[in-house]
């Protein structure tokens, strides 16, 4: 139960979450709903999103589109522009750029096509979403954008230069836009997950997993819920005086 | 309210200026009130008032009040 006096509350507001069918995306949607927000849940695959809609308790508007399709993104924001004023949805308060892909390969076998794919999905698509979202948020003179970054983008990781570059680019946009959008009341922050137990990391064999866990002070992998709680904090009024910050969610990872 | 009055009202509200200052020749960055921050608020309020979503290229081109009217006309807003 949330109320407008609760600083965690997002009641009467809406949040767009990209990549809502991934494990972290699902946890973020659930956290937003728990805070009382209406959620625009983006996914490419309607078949993956449909069963989740029944499991989420709250107002969820499915938005099926590819985040890299510029025309489709614009059309979806047009729909959000129309829908956000419905009393049961509320103005767009939050954007969570969560959709992403991780490519692992040494530089010698990283094709330019793969590098461009990383940049398209992990950087250019979030940038366009921020460009359109800030115009809707500017009408309220209030909003919160949270970009899902990565400790790999913060610290670097051997064999992940393409992925790290795309996340580092998004970090640059995050801290710059925090400065640019502050005058219109929009905060821009990031979360930087470390080793999170999701499909992206589940293919690691036990030996490789143990090596990574040894480098984490808290000696465990993070969970999608750990990331979602950090995102929820940055969306809410609890972090009203925080912008341009990258919040690590990594159990203190030591490279 | 006709669209000429409406756009004047939007400019006054977004930029915090008087109605007599809103002429077709009023140009971006020539008065302190119409800076990059105000431009974002102006775009948001134009989109809200006229129920449109502008292309980024149109926002880049929106350098005067007259140009804003030309651009909005492309979105079926008549002046």
UniProtKB/TrEMBL annotation, chain A:
The alphabetized UniProt keywords are: Oxidoreductase
Q: Which Pfam families match?
A: adh_short_C2 (PF13561)
Task: Check the record and name the CDD domains matching this protein.
Answer: SDR_c
- InterPro entries in the record, alphabetically? KR_dom, NAD(P)-bd_dom_sf, SDR_fam
Is-annotated flag, keyword Flavoprotein? no
Q: Where is the Ketoreductase domain?
A: 13-194
The record, for SUPFAM superfamilies, names:
NAD(P)-binding Rossmann-fold domains
Keyword match Translocase: no
| Family named by the database record | Belongs to the short-chain dehydrogenases/reductases (SDR) family.
User: What is this protein's record name?
Assistant: SDR family oxidoreductase
TrEMBL record, chain B:
- Which residue ranges traverse the bilayer? none
Question: Which InterPro entries does its entry note?
Answer: ACP-like_sf, PP-bd_ACP
What positions does the domain Carrier occupy?
6-67
Which top-rank group of organisms is this from?
Answer: Bacteria
Its recorded name reads: Acyl carrier protein
Q: Which organism is it from?
A: Alteromonas ponticola
């Amino acid at each position: 139960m949330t109320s407008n006096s609760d600083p965690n509350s997002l009641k009467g507001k809406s949040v767009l979450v990209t990549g809502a069918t991934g494990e972290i995306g699902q946890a973020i949607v659930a956290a937003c709903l728990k805070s009382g927000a209406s959620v625009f849940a983006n996914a490419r695959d309607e078949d993956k999103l449909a069963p989740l809609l029944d499991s989420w308790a709250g107002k969820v508007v499915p938005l099926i589109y590819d985040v890299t399709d510029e025309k489709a993104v614009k059309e979806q924001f047009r729909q959000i522009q129309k829908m956000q004023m419905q009393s049961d949805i509320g103005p767009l308060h939050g954007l969570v750029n969560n959709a992403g892909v991780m490519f692992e390969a040494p530089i010698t076998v990283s094709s330019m096509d793969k590098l461009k794919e990383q940049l398209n999905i992990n950087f250019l698509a979030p940038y366009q979403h921020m460009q359109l979202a800030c115009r809707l948020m500017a009408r309220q003179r209030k909003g919160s954008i949270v970009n899902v970054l990565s400790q790999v983008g913060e610290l670097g990781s051997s064999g992940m230069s393409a992925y790290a570059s795309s996340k580092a680019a998004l970090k640059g946009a995050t801290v710059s836009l925090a400065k640019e959008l502050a005058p219109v009341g929009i905060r821009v922050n990031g979360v930087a997950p470390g080793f999170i137990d999701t499909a992206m990391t589940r293919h690691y064999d036990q030996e490789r997993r143990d090596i990574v866990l040894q480098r984490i002070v808290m000696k465990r992998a993070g969970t999608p819920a750990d990331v979602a709680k950090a995102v929820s904090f940055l969306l809410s009024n609890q972090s009203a005086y925080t912008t341009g910050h990258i919040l690590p969610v990594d159990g203190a990872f030591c490279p | 309210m006709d669209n000429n009055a409406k756009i004047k009202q939007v400019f006054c509200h977004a930029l915090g200026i008087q109605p007599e200052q809103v002429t077709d020749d009023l140009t971006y960055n020539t008065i302190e009130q119409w800076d990059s921050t105000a431009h974002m608020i102006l775009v948001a309020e134009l989109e809200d008032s006229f129920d449109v979503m502008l292309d980024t290229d149109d926002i880049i081109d929106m350098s005067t009040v007259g140009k804003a009217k030309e651009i909005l006309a492309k979105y079926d807003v008549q002046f």
